[in-house]
Specification:
The structure is a single chain. This protein is an alpha+beta fold and 415 residues long. It folds into three domains: 152 residues, FAD/NAD(P)-binding domain (3-Layer(bba) Sandwich), CATH 3.50.50; 49 residues, no CATH class; 138 residues, D-Amino Acid Oxidase, Chain A, domain 2 (2-Layer Sandwich). The chain is 33% helix and 26% strand. It has ten helices and 20 strands. Strands 5, 6, 7, 13, 14, 15, 16, 17 and 18 form a nine-stranded mixed beta sheet that branches. A hairpin with a 3-residue loop joins strand 19 and strand 20. Helix 8 packs across helix 9. The longest helix has 22 residues. The protein starts with 17 loop residues before the first strand and ends with a helix.
Length: 415
Amino acid sequence: MIHPEKQPSATTTVADMKSADVVVVGGGIVGLATAWKLVSRQPSASIILIEKEPVLAKHQTGHNSGVLHSGIYYKPGSVKALTCTTGRAEMVRFCETYDIEHEICGKVIVATQDLDLPRLDVLEERAAANGVKARRIERAELRELEPHAAGITGLHVPESGITNYTKVCLTLGRLLTEAGVELLTGTRVTAIDERADAVRLSTTAGDIQAGLVVTCGGLYSDRLARETAPDTTERIMPFRGEYYELAEHRRSLVNALIYPVPDPDFPFLGVHLTRMIDGSIHAGPNAVLALAREGYTWGDIDLGDLAEVLRNPGWWKLAKNYWRTGIGEYYRSLSKAAFVKALQRLVPELTADDLVPSPAGVRAQAVSTEGKLLDDFVWSETARVVNVLNAPSPAATASLAIGSQIVERLATHQG
């Protein structure tokens, strides 16, 4: 069960229950985008969206850096690659249509050492394969784009941009309400019972009967999936990404987006510098295992969540494979000086006095039983349920395209 202490009501009758053609569980950007695509395809369908928090987009989406990713990083042919490029263009059109602040500011990916050069070559090849505009730049041009950035060479990716995904979600929520979708915020799903003719969801606001269900539960996606697919082996591990931001008088050190060349074996991009749509400059994140699924600080501890991680053999295999990387991430978490040193590889002028703490985010990272960090989007299906199991970055950028793919899958269930 998702929450064993809350069992389905035995006294609720079918006549008492809400009902809908489709129920979407999760009020983050992927759930909202899926509901929007459902409305666009089937305007007469009855749809309910359930979110456990009192507001939309509280967790991953609400802590997002706001980057409109280009699609340069992703393995050609992967779901990420296919949805990011189309999703970015669709998200830009959405922002234009509904007057949501956004900017196509471009970004630079900088090689700071010879070790980065072969990886930069791979990124350039992926850009070409994924249809992403990217151009190799030498040091002189890098200094024109980002005067304070270090680097022996780099890639300029002009189609990258920034927006405010919380505003995107609030706009989607308004549009869904206007279209007749019922948004149940502050409502927790406690059990999902799939039957031959319908799906029954038990919630803190009463039982709901649905023809089809989509779960987009983010940090709880594996638990939701196991309600109808108990053999699901993937497990969510919460990785906290900690940030600083530049003091206001030092924002001029960064014009747009400055990224390092990422490690291809690790699905995190490394600490980088990101101009937000409000003009602030965020620095980070690192990636440390959170001690709770909603573990935004070291003081947020849930012994049940932690025990679940420690019981998972995938965690121990992951720790064995990445212990050196993990030590570095924890060191940067506990030492501001170490964090600053990582950032100085990108902008050498930065000092500890230039950085002030900024709120952290928690990434829902699916891990296999073999201890692999799943890098692509992953979903599972039963007869009446589609479960989104892994939706890492660039899920916000690609959300409208992901929503379209989920709706296509639902259409096959409807026969």
